[in-house]
Amino acid sequence: MTVAISPGKIILLGEHGVVYGKPALAMAISLKVAADIEISSSYTVNSRPLDEKKHIYIKKAIEKLWDGEPLSITTFSQIPSASGLGSSAAITTAIVAALFAMKNGFSKEKVAKYSFEIEYDVQGMASPIDTSTCSYGNAIMVWKKEKEGYIWKISKNGSTWYIYPFEMPEINIVIGVSNIKSKTPSIVKKVSKFVEHSSFAKDLLNEMELLVMEGVKALRQKDIVKFGEIMNQNHKILYNIGASSREIEKLVATARKAGAYGAKITGAGGGGSIIAIGDDCERIMEALKEKCKDAYIVTPDKEGVKVWK
Ligand code: PMV
After folding, report:
1. Would the CB of 126 count as within 6 Å of ligand 1?
2. Which one of 32, 246, 295, 301 is least enclosed by Cβ atoms within 10 Å?
3. Buried b / exposed e along 18-32 (16+ C-beta atoms within 10 A)
4. What residue numbers bound the domain in which 207 lies?
């Protein structure tokens, strides 16, 4: 029996821009997935035959990494699916880590790189932010700029992203999960058309880059009020590049009305989730619960992907 646990993730600042090499900040969260893998007589997931469509990330991980006997895989998840909270990245990193561990051991870097390849295969355009965050834990900044101190770099189709560790202060973040499923590939494609054809979109991404740098500084200084303002400005840019929706706007407004210093889309947008920060997280969560599918208060996960044999 091999068990792997991986955290989900939220993007604090800079989603979409990161696809084009702009900086983004992401944090691993206290909601997690677990995968238990055992040698078996046929491939199954949660006692059903492995389904190429339903279990596409698991199928691709097996194709890339496993040539042994069939496997019986059982998964448990605290992360709502298609919610922009990294459920696919977390399941992928957990399975990849477990398969490496069953062969000859794993490193977080190897897990991040293979998991990104799988995510890229399935989604088309993607940055390595989700899989690197789930693998590393705590928080990371992803950027095309090479500076000292990166933990690993990942290249694909002529783009290279450098992954920098970021020490998160102790912080509670409220998540509101909308009733609309996040459709990352289609929103990423829609934004890419806008970026390709409009200098306005490029200006917005440049503005977002400055906000991410300011946000990093505010977090280092533990200035949550300032960080909240920056989240609000980042949300406005995401709205302007077409990543929001009526549902998301409603949730962002609800969080702000309940006292959030800042609220924004997290992840690709359209549907999915929002994040909010403020002094009274319970109040923000309760207000969101009345309007959305579910709401949580999360803290940073410190460990990233882990395996037991
Ligand atoms: O998978 P999501 O919804 O958390 O979105 C990931 C963030 C994007 O920047 C929109 C895409 C990417 O791969 O970086």
Report:
1. yes
2. 246
3. bbbbbbbbbbbbbbb
4. 173-298
